[in-house]
């Protein structure tokens, strides 16, 4: 059992009724009273971010997690099928465990985070950027807008729809930020 002095960014703890990852923390020592640690925690199951304050020296339960490289193979009724790149073992994950699932294409490398003790998958994480082809978008007409930041909808090869600049056409390959779910650049 650890205490609040062991808190650091990226640490996963068992808190309330789930597993939470520490996004940010701040040790506070006020002029009067006891010290405390103010934290921002992200629920690994739902992605929801909460704030919590721990009294200094409070006990926390650290959870050991492992990140393993997997490759996305295909989607079936039960969920998404992934293959371990080292052992070639296949597992199926539900959509709710995958961040930005509609930006995955077959053959995509992902990291699946497992609870080290129980060997249960917690969530799957795509790389920060993926390169996808635009399969449909309306043509951009010069002079359509009054500002230089005009955007239009584009459908990607995975079926996802995102906003892109007017100069993007069908067949262009673009880099998409999976964390922001947004266009980054043309490739």
What does this structure look like?
By secondary structure, the chain is mainly β. It has three domains: 2-62, SH3 type barrels (Roll); 65-125, Beta Barrel (OB fold (Dihydrolipoamide Acetyltransferase, E2P)), CATH 2.40.50.140; 129-186, Nucleic acid-binding proteins (OB fold (Dihydrolipoamide Acetyltransferase, E2P)). The protein has strands spanning 2-3, 12-15, 18-28, 36-43, 49-55, 59-62, 65-76, 79-84, 90-93, 109-115, 121-125, 129-137, 151-156, 161-165, 173-177, 182-186. The strands form three sheets. It has a six-stranded antiparallel β-sheet, with no helix packed on it. A five-stranded antiparallel β-sheet has the order 9-8-7-10-11, with no helix packed on it. Strand 10 (109-115) and strand 11 (121-125) form a beta hairpin.
Give a brief description:
By secondary structure, this protein is an all-beta fold. It has no helices and 16 strands.
Provide keyphrases for this structure.
single chain, 187 residues, SH3 type barrels, OB fold (Dihydrolipoamide Acetyltransferase, E2P), 3 domains, 6-stranded antiparallel sheet, 5-stranded antiparallel sheet, 0% helix, flat
Summing up helix and strand content along with how strands pair, one would put the structural category as mainly beta
Reported for the largest beta sheet, the result is: 6 strands, antiparallel
Can you tell me the CATH topology of the largest domain?
SH3 type barrels
User: What do the pLDDT scores average to?
Assistant: 89
Helical content stands at under 10%
Strand content: over 45%
What integer value in Å does the Rg equal? 21 Å
**Low-confidence spans:** none
Q: Report the end-to-end length measured between terminal Cα atoms.
A: 48 Å
Number of strands: 16
């Amino acid at each position: 059992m650890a205490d609040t002095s062991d808190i650091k960014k990226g640490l996963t703890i068992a808190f309330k009724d789930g597993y939470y990852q520490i996004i940010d923390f701040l040790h506070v020592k006020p002029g009067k009273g006891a010290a405390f640690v103010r934290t921002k925690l992200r629920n690994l199951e739902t992605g929801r971010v909460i704030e919590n304050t721990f009294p200094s020296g409070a006990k926390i339960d650290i959870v050991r997690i492992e990140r393993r490289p997997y490759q996305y193979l295909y989607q079936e009724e039960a969920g998404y099928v992934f293959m371990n790149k080292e052992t070639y073992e296949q597992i199926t994950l539900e959509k709710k465990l995958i961040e930005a699932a509609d930006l995955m294409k077959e053959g995509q490398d992902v990291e699946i985070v497992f609870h080290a003790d129980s060997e249960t998958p917690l969530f799957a994480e795509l790389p920060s950027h993926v390169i996808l082809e635009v399969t449909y978008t309306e043509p951009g007409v010069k002079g359509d807008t009054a500002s230089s930041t005009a955007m239009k909808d584009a459908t990607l090869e995975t079926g996802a729809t995102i906003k892109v600049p007017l100069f993007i056409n069908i067949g262009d390959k673009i880099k998409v930020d999976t964390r922001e779910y947004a266009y980054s650049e043309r490739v």
